[in-house]
Amino acid sequence: MLALVGILASAVLLAVVARLAFGSPLPQHPLGFAAALALGATALLAVGLLVAAVAPTAKAAQALAVPVFMVIMFFGGVYLPRFLLPDFLAEIGAYTPPGVQALLDAWTGTAPQPLHLGIMAVIAVAAGAGAAKLFRWE
């Protein structure tokens, strides 16, 4: 919960500073943006918890997390803009945990698609449940 609050606070601070310093527009659909950001962050955090739950050591968790998050970020458009990807890869990217398409939709004025939000929620619940089931104290 603390990580999620920190992510949301960072996003608000970044948007306000960008608005004041550069005149950047604010999200046109703020509730949709907040929902997409919260679900995307929750899904990513849950995936991180799942990686930590299956890893035997902290060092192994780091080794497992890097490729997992590199793939997620690739599909999300961090390394290469999604519009440059082949159509089928860009479509996959619309449903990845960062919620890039849902965030873009909310920023530009349309509500995020329920399917985008729903898939992020499913990822968050599935990864969270998997992490809870596989977690062990050692």
What report would you give on this structure?
It is built from six helices and no strands. The chain is mostly helical and 138 residues long. The chain is globular, with a radius of gyration of 16 Å. The model has no long low-confidence stretch (mean pLDDT 89).
User: Roughly what percent helix?
Assistant: over 70%
What structural category arises from helix and sheet content?
mainly alpha
| Total strand segments | 0
Give the radius of gyration: 16 Å
The count of helical stretches stands at: 6
Which shape, going by the Cα principal axes? globular
Mean pLDDT: 89
Note the gap between the termini: 23 Å
Q: In percent terms, what proportion of residues is strand?
A: under 5%
* Biggest beta sheet attributes: none
Poorly predicted runs of 5 or more residues: none
H/E element order: HHHHHH
